[in-house]
Specification:
The protein has about 350 residues and is mostly helical. It has 2 domains: about 70 residues, no CATH class; about 220 residues, no CATH class. Helices cover about 75% and strands about 0% of the residues. It has 12 helices and 2 strands. A two-stranded parallel sheet has the order 1-2. Helix 11 packs antiparallel against helix 12. The longest helix is centred in the middle third of the chain and has 39 residues.
Amino acid sequence: MRDRLPSPGDVQAALASATSHRRLAFDAREISAWDTGLLIFVRGVLDAARPLGFAVDRSGLPDGVRKLLDLALAVPERESRRGGAPLSLLARVGQGALSTLAGAREMITFVGEATIALGHAAVGRARFRRADLMLNIQEAGANALGIVSLISFLIGLILAFVGAIQLRRVGAQLYIADVVAIGMAREMGAMMVAIIMAGRTGAAYAAHLGTMRVNEEIDALTVTGISPLDFLVLPRMLGLILMMPLLTVYANLIGILGGGLVSVGMFKVGALPYWTRTWNAVGIEDFAAGLIKSAVFGVLIAIAGCFRGMRCGRSSDAVGLATTSAVVTGIVFIIVSDAILTVIYEAIGF
């Protein structure tokens, strides 16, 4: 019995010199112990025999070696471009365009599926647990009040300071109330709540669903005949869509309160005049404009977070990428949709 493996050169020469027999078999009955060196040797023999047309019989190998070889041969090696010619600019642009089109197609497909799921919920045919919906309402609503309160209060302070810098030059500090109230009701309240929820709730949706994808829990639901869109995505979408307008109203009030604190405490505006001016400056249409935006933002944030989570890869790195992508996608959706809605409001005089 030999105490070492033959060299790859000797094996390749022996295979090349075989002219009559084109069958390769292994006899490992004398092997009492083996390590990865045997695996590397066997893999090298198989690679050398394949181009020569040998029929390979691996039944003589130990069971562990055969199983590891099956695993190694089942996963194709990644092609490495090291040392190869780099892609041309046109090829990179083409690859980027194809990737963008594929992502857009997947997004459109997901939006269609989510719309169908919402339709099922509207007619009472959706399959999800009511407890999941209530939990998501709590997560997207009550649990977010702390951060929404802090950010809205500070935004109100900032708007009051920005307005006061210009208005006090002409002795019109009372109109700080107009700046704060209209700014919060029409724009900043809905915008800041949306950005907070994109970074908080949208990221949580992507991370949770991505982890379920990695753990094959979503596959298990599909195998059992339960729609992941109905069971997992729909409660999250409904919870966020329902809570966004309520959080926006709350943020508007906190922001106006913050602006009032600056006006009364630093610019000598009376509390009653500030409140009266706020009441007269803001109409129901201003609050409605912000609430419409908040509802649209809620839909887009839920779609971005759930889409990235459901399309997550199957590794821990993929979960992190999906979470980051959900936040970026959600914020981009918010900015673009806000610009579009602002133009529409201006066009219709709203």
